[in-house]
Amino acid sequence: LRHYHQLLEKVRIRDALRSILTISRHGNQYIQVNEPWKQIKGSEADRQRAGTVTGLAVNIAALLSVMLQPYMPTVSATIQAQLQLPPPACSILLTNFLCTLPAGHQIGTVSPLFQKLENDQIESLRQRFGGGQLEETLDLKAKTSLKPTVAETGTTAGPQQIQALMDEVTKQGNIVRELKAQKADKNQVAAEVAKLLDLKKQLAVAEGKPPEAPKGKKKK
């Protein structure tokens, strides 16, 4: 938890997310090892132990809901609503783990946070956002190849056209960075990178510069 704070202070967003996953994994292991669903059927001591394990698990879930706020605010709010967390527990994130929920706290109705994707749904999404992106890129290249470039016509692009291309390059660059950060499908990333390279080429020509050659791997 302290490491999570340190990483966010250094704006290491992706590394901080790994801290959330680590805490979540430890919480799951704690529940699996103690098996409160079995202990609740045992002796009085077993039932008390089941209550302790469940209470600690709920507090871990409450902690994770606060840690998730910068990343998935909607999911965070859903968890907090299901746990019926009081406002103070949702607004403060300490550097040490403490059980913020009082004994006897009652949670609300719990439902799955994410829909389980079946194989046919995964294939449908892959075809929709994978191959489709490549076809769209090829179609875009075919259309742009038919248009005469600034160099071919011998004319010079105006300031407005150059600024418009610069804005498009910036916008497309942000799209590529977001996809890479989300570890999106490789085909989708490749399609968006192709668009970015094409826009950069158009901008270079508009500015009267030679288009940059694709960067290859350096030989050792």
From TrEMBL:
Transmembrane segments: none annotated. It holds the Pfam family WHEP-TRS. GO terms for cellular component: aminoacyl-tRNA synthetase multienzyme complex; cytosol. Keywords: Aminoacyl-tRNA synthetase, ATP-binding, Ligase, Nucleotide-binding, Protein biosynthesis. One of its GO terms (molecular function) is ATP binding. Residues 161-217 form the WHEP-TRS domain. InterPro entries: Anticodon_Met, Met-tRNA_ligase_1, tRNAsynth_Ia_anticodon-bd, uS15_NS1_RNA-bd_sf, WHEP-TRS_dom. One of its GO terms (biological process) is methionyl-tRNA aminoacylation. This is Methionyl-tRNA synthetase-like protein.
